[in-house]
Amino acid sequence: MRNPAAAAPVHQPMDQLSRPGRIEDYGVIGNLHTAALVNRNGCIDWLCLPRFDSGAVFARLLGEAENGYWQVAPVGEPKSITRFYEEDTLVLVTRFETSTGVVELTDFMPIDTQPSHGRLVRIVECVEGEVEMQTVLYLRFDYGSTIPWVRSVDEGIYAISGPYSVRIRTPVPLEGKDMHTEGRFTVRKEQRIPLEMSWHMSYLEDMLPRSADHLLGKTRRYWRRWVGTCADGVGEMREAVVRSLITLKALTNTLSGGIVAAVTTSLPEWPGSVRNWDYRYCWVRDAAFTLNAFMRWGHTQEICDWRGWLLRAAAGQPADLQIMYGIAGERRLTELELPWLKGFRDSQPVRIGNAASEQRQLDVYGELADALSLGGQMGLPPSEDSWAMGKSIIQFLETIWDQPDSGLWEMRGPPQHHTYSKDMAWLAFDRAVRTATSRNLDAPVARWTKVRDRIHADVCEKGFDGTRNSFMQAYGSSKLDASLLRIPLVGFLPGDDPRVIGTVDAVQKTLVKNGMVMRYEPDSESGDGLPPGEGSFLACTFWLADALIATGRKPEARVLFDQLLAVRNDLGLLAEEYDPIAKCQLGNFPQAFSHVGLLHTARNLVDSASMGPLPR
What we know:
Blueprint: H1 14-17, E1 26-30, E2 35-39, E3 43-48, E4 56-58, E5 69-74, E6 80-85, E7 92-97, E8 101-108, E9 117-138, E10 149-153, E11 156-161, E12 164-169, E13 175-177, E14 180-188, E15 192-201, H2 212-227, H3 238-250, E16 282-283, H4 284-296, H5 301-313, E17 324-325, E18 336-337, E19 351-352, H6 363-377, H7 384-400, H8 419-439, H9 445-462, E20 464-465, E21 470-471, H10 498-510, E22 512-513, E23 516-517, E24 536-537, H11 538-550, H12 554-565, E25 577-579, E26 584-586, H13 592-606
Antiparallel strand pairs: 1-2, 2-3, 3-4, 3-5, 5-9, 6-7, 7-8, 8-9, 9-14, 9-15, 10-11, 11-12, 12-15, 13-14, 16-17, 18-19, 20-21, 22-23, 24-25, 25-26
Helix pairs in contact: 3-13, 4-5, 4-6, 4-13, 6-8, 7-8, 8-9, 11-12, 11-13, 12-13
């Protein structure tokens, strides 16, 4: 089924299609270990092997052709290009119409439980007439810095560099040329030509060849079984909901249970800026938001898997809890710059690793407690280890909740007393009290209740500005912050509280630019430690829609939600931010935070309940 949001056929000269353009031009395919970005021209410009956070073998997204890509496309300029995902799957189809015929390129990655092995399959099928096709392959390892040793083998080529190796299997004759591989072939009506890329650790045996059609059928069945009936009965929202659910699932690791924030690193929050970060890691906050979205749409296995990941990743002293980890729970995420990559649209530096992993962000405790609390309501079995860890974390939070932190937005300036962080500290104690009471668990409930109430009073006294009739970004600050829209969504105050209504009105007046919401007022006083310049934050715009529902303005929220759906690309995918003037997406892609926002707002609009998470 074609994406109902699909745009008209794209007409672009092939010289433009031969290089990365806009973030919207990409679709994503994945195997729950890693993922690839496929340009609308049939070019894979980004793929890290064997994991999301490994070195890229195709890195042209952030550099030049010589940094690696794989294109399969007609020879010459097509008359039009359209694309769509097969219904309820992560199988991407790109349709080229040429002067001699019509051809479809089907791209997918079969689901496999072996992280050391994997496949990417491309099937070319002629629908009408006949079409001359070409494949151009630049294999580069370690983010485009290493040219592998390549040799010809039966039905393809084999490439090796250190611990990594890649094999291409295809009946298409391939020829080495100027440190890359090319091939030309003609497909006629109803003819199907497969091109399969497999990878494995170079010291292990290669995967056995499998029929491309067999792998395609298996991949279709996996995704359709996983989607199931979770989004039935929601009418016209179903397409957007299912696409967002599949996208979030594609960001999970099937073995460790970890959930990454995005597939990419260093896609800029503003073209030419230095706001270029690596999002291929597991933020506790982002994962908690993602899990809440999964559960609210009927998927509960992910919270079980993630709790196991959390127990391993966070094992140790509560004071050592990080805001993010590697996919398997790694703690050291050293931030480095890759000077040989020029960056997307010349936005430098290109970074790997993330120094924000060393920050203190108090909000993660609340979001963590909230996800586990909802998981318990959704049938997550009790765990002695989980509760023991939870108690120790809450007890540690008692000693630090009143300290400044770097905040939700990972400010790289001096720590502040962020209002949202205090609000989330309140949430942590509130959910801990509710969980202990409802399950009759051993806990100092009376003491935790007093701390919870103390935090609530502190936020209301120091975080609210009576003159502006709004909660502010930080204690003593004169600036607004879109995160404050979540105050009614977590139950800190009801939606009809005048302070909530005032905050929503203030955000609309100050942070809404061209119909979209900025995270905060980006000037020197915001304290983010970076030069100004970024797009509107999509998750914050969804939060505004949720807050409008909470304050009884559901029709206005629906208008905003429809506006946000129109921002998605033709495949239904969202990056982190959006430039409403240039009408383009910005930031890492596809972004979990944005798709989580879509799912929560859709759920809130559908539910008979007025707002927010499922009743506790």
